[in-house]
Give the backbone structure.
Amino acid sequence: MNVVVVESPAKAKTINKYLGPDYTVLASYGHVRDLPPKDGSVRPDDDFAMEWEVDAKASKRLSDIAAAVKDADRLILATDPDREGEAISWHILEALNKKRALKDKTVERVTFNAITRSAVTEAMANPRAIDMELVDAYLARRALDYLVGFNLSPVLWRKLPGARSAGRVQSVALRLIVDREIEIEKFRAQEYWTVEADITAEGPPFLARLVTHGGKKLTKFDLNNEASALVAKAAVEAGTFTIRSVEKKPARRSPPPPFTTSTLQQEAARKLGFSAQRTMQTAQKLYEGIDGEGGLITYMRTDGVDVSPEGLAEARDVIKSHYGAAYLPEEARRYKSKQKNAQEAHEAIRPTSLARRPESLRLDDDLRRLYDLIWRRMAASQMEAARVERTTIELETADALTGLRATGQVVTFDGYLAVYEEGKDDADDEEGGRLPAVREGASAKIEAARADQHFTEPPPRYSEASLVKKMEELGIGRPSTYASTLTTLRDREYVRMERQRFVPEDKGRLVTAFLEQFFARWVEYDFTAALETQLDEVSSGDLDWKVLLRRFWTDFHAATQAAGELRTSVILDHLNEALGPHIFPEKADGSDPRLCPRCGEGQLSLKTSRFGAFIGCSNYPECKYTRPIGQPADAEGAEGQDSGDRELGTDPATGQPITLKNGRFGWYVETPSEGDKPKRSSLPKGWSPTSLDLEQALRLLSLPREVGAHPEDGKPITAGLGRYGPFVAHAGTYANLGDIQEVFDIGLNRAVALLAEKRAGRRGGGSTTALKDLGPHPETGEQVQVMPGRFGPYVKSGKVNATLPKGVDPAEVTLGQAVQLIAAKAAKGPTKKPARAAKAAKPKAAKPKSGSKAKKATG
């Protein structure tokens, strides 16, 4: 009997069919061990020893594998064919050795690039040992990411309240986005003009552009105002032109190579609107296969553009049969990656069988669209080049002082364009269309001329496609990590998306400025790319992984220690200087942009509080002027207001003003009410105070709202916004809502259902719904949760409850922090009962009845 371990259950099911009854195929469900999220998981002082823990769910799976191996002759580790897959096999092997489950068992490693019968069968016939050089590269990468995160993030928390984390690749990707935004802000548009004319010359009209004026070749900015453009236009209208030359040049457009991970993410973003994460999740399903179809594409994490001989042969057969011999080049096309760190051993992403055309498969929408894209790209990569003819017509006056040029292009043979044309992230200059047949020396007539004004444009913000492309060009990170990196930037609220483009939030700019000032080397593009090259040297056996870690840790540790000892005032001085053009932009009247608009004496500068950074006056506490970082000092409602207060408008129902304020616990809206206290409502998470308008404020102040009467008892169901987010309530029962929008939109039926689910959970012995599940305790295995409490949120594991410190956001608590709080609480022992409670709990001795002897109480 043979036991085969793969990563996913979908893959296990398919492979079991291929291998037959002599094989038992089990799934590890990805990684089975990880570094515990606490200090000491990587110990530099102990030669970078690493402590691993088995996930609670993985523990059962490892036990199942161990039990299956007990009665087997051979264990075959068939995890994915990349560094991460090699690491998973190593983790499984290490965990089973600890269980002593592999005595006298043969252990082999196999990889296959596609889940097809032939690929799996061939892999089983060619086993090997675990590639420890790939494992070492994984260990180095994992240690680096841990050391950066667990040493740099705490410095951020202490010195920049509101900052959430930093990461080796994440912070450099954020810097790219911030640097592009700074480019855009510094950009100053330049005016330029062009002159075009409609021409006829013994045939249909065509368009030509002015290229020579006054005997001089024009450059882009020679016509930089309307006056010069009108003079040039007049010269065209007055000139008598002759066709000086007609030049036709044949050209070829070669097809792009099949997809790699990076180019698939880019093209899916351009053509399908998919995020990198959505692309990879969909590609994973295509790789694992559909019931009855097997794997539809080869492995989706690859830098290679090569294709196996079998894949090339099948592609040529499909092209010849479906498109004809004219579309088939004489020889198969071979591609070589331009990526300097490419893993050339991996095949490109392609259909496992090009004969399975997209229209022949029954797939859901995302799978169908992505498969169609991969199929077309692969087919096009092996087709004949497109042939085009580029025509240039030069026109000139007799004195050669004025010249025009017309350009055009026509496709004479579509070749691979019959199947696929590569998308563009940003608009390119468009080629002209077909030009009419004209002869040299023919007279040309100006039918009409136009002078058009233009302005240069700033570089565009990064889309997912262009950011992935830039990261790949710079050698930052690996394509398999891009999706998670970009997701983390959004989750940390360092960036937001506008029209599918990345825009840095002020929080992200602050973090980037801090890192550039105090950790400049570690966010340099070249340094990060060089580190990736060294990691590749580890995987190829040319560099010891611990040597790499020692080199990195020596300087990095010193930098974190130095930054940790800096006074906050020193850090803020550096950030004030670095962020000056953004937070204190020059004023139109030339006045001091840092002068406090309220007191007229103090200087504005960055300040920090436990709620994050803000702009404040140096005359505090005499002057309490503050404002958000992203709001200019002269913005409407900002000048002269305490705490950045801003009047949003008037309530049409009451005629009372509605004001946005910043208080001790964050932003809120307020309006006077009939009672002693004004009516208030906090801004929900994700709502920006700078963009809040009157309509949104009115909706918040309308809370809580009545959804309707409960059908069982007629009592009202209300929807509101509380300390832990949106909820519905009825007769003392509260049920959380997933989204703030539901508070305003939820109907009676859904509210009743949510409340019923909540009550059913309690009747079944459940307790209050957890605010956050953190995972199993590393020592006891019991679940660790963040819970809402009467006196504030707390963390719980088993019978130990530990209150969260003041100011700690329950949504941001990590497993490591929770474990430390629980350990500290457990060390104190159980809480003693108050004296009065203890007295009340002690049973009173019963008085003896009259006429009887009192019984002696027994202890």
Q: What stands out?
A: Residues 132-159 form the longest helix (28 residues). Residues 2-130 form a domain with the Rossmann fold fold (CATH 3.40.50.140). The CA atoms of residues 73 and 780 lie 34 Å apart.
